[in-house]
Design a protein that fits this description.
Distance between the termini: 26 Å
Number of helices: 7
Oligomer: single chain
Largest sheet: none
Structural class: mainly alpha
Strand content: under 5%
Number of strands: 0
Helix content: over 70%
Order of helices and strands: HHHHHHH
Length: 200
């Protein structure tokens, strides 16, 4: 036999209910991130189409790619070379990784800060979402940012001739700062989890 409390949800008082309902103000922000995701998808396909066209000898597509990746060469560019292909592919990977970051923020943030999605029985539920909370989401976002920074740094090193030593140095320093920040976040999360063990 069920109790009244188990059969009906707990009703909040007007002021706490109003404050708690204010979490829905975040909904337009997540919808906006979905729109940004759509822009990234469009950008990905534009770059991919230009790469395919350049592979078949389209000079306009080739020049568009060269301009978009900031590639410079002392010799005339008459076709795709390994460096251009590598820089374009790294750019596509960069878009994918930022898109993954957006998905983590949209799905994880909505689940954590707005409302439950009840995806427990859904066959496509992301593995990481089953144990997501604000702390786990923070660590995953920091890890994703390091991955994106690594791609940017690799692109810079491959195309190092187009950058000054100062730019190369600062990008390396910034990447190292991201690494230490992620380590600090993970360490703080681990210390907090040991200080406040989960109730059994």
């Amino acid at each position: 036999m069920s109790t009244p409390n188990s059969s009906s949800p707990h009703r909040l008082k007007p002021l706490p209910g109003f404050i708690f309902a204010s979490r829905w103000l975040q909904l337009p922000l997540y919808v906006g991130l979905i729109a940004a995701q759509a822009v990234y998808v469009f950008h990905f396909w534009v770059e991919l189409i230009h790469l395919l066209e350049a592979a078949f000898g389209n000079q306009n597509a080739l020049m568009t790619l060269v301009k978009s990746i900031g590639y410079k060469s002392d010799v005339p560019i008459n076709g795709l070379n390994e460096t251009i292909i590598m820089l374009v592919v790294l750019g596509l990977i960069d878009v994918v990784m930022i898109s993954n970051l957006l998905i983590m923020v949209i799905v994880g943030g909505y689940e954590t800060f707005v409302s439950r999605m009840h995806l427990e029985e859904h066959p496509d539920q992301p593995e990481w979402l089953s144990h997501v909370n604000a702390s786990v989401l923070k660590v995953k976002l920091a890890t994703a940012i390091i991955g994106i920074s690594s791609i940017h740094l690799l692109k810079t090193f491959i195309n190092a001739g187009s950058y000054t030593e100062q730019v190369l140095l600062w990008q390396t320093v910034i990447h190292i700062a991201f690494l230490f920040s992620a380590l600090a976040i993970a360490l703080a999360d681990r210390l907090m989890s040991h200080t406040h063990p989960a109730p059994h």
